[in-house]
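Fig. S4 source data, part A: sequence.
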Amino acid sequence: MGGNPGIFAELTKLHLTVYIALSAMFGHVMAAPVPGPDTLVMGCSVWLLAAGAAVLNNIQDRRYDQWFARTRNRCLPRKKISVRSAAMLAAVLILTGLGLLLGYPETRLPGILGLSALVCYNGLYTPLKKKRLAAVWPGVLCGMLPPAMGWTAVPALDRAGTLEGLFFLMLVLGIWQVPHFLVLWARQPFLDPGADIFPCLTRVWTQTELTLQILIWVSLYSLSMLLFLIKGGIAFWGFSAALGALALALPVLMVFFSRSLLNRHGARGFGVVNLSMFVFMILGILDRVFV
């Protein structure tokens, strides 16, 4: 990689794998009676695995990426790094992450769930997205597993949280991914007419229908966040009130951005959805650490 941190950040999809690590930490602090260094170790372990899966995904998609304006300048299509070097990096990251997740003395569940997430992402979602729009569902399942990795890393006799709380956390993360995918896929213009061999949302729905689908799923995401709060997912009233206000405001903000969701300005709406998840996880973790 020639010591270029930009290439490393791109290959590991740092902007997404950090979210995955935070969600695992959130699951861990929900179960741990007293959050501590183990929570950070869990986050780092899951990040290593997710980063390795992201590098492998870049390798799998290097030819597919050439068709899209959004991805054609990535380092593998532009040959800024060799496939062999990327493969070595993926192997080191994946094996290290899985090794750490399998290293818990009382349970192997975090490692088993980590391996399942790897299969869902690189074995199902990545190849299927070139053939079927339904590939989004294994991608959603993959994104729901990191909180369970964090949760199961805490010995059963020591767990302070409830399975109901974990379920609603996983539900929030699962539903969030659908509008995330919809906006991401809808904003991918093809570079070549021959690329119509790949699935495209704009050939299934009109622009109005696609925008409506995004708004519906954002509303469901907001509702799942409110259900998480109603079920006592956040203890401190200040954090709970802030997240409740965010959940109520999110559909309104997305309606405001609805005219630009499917063009180059759609990054604003996309950013709002992603930022809301970041705030949700940070406040959720801080709630367990300091309250």
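Fig. S4 source data, part B ends here. The longest helix spans residues 37-60.
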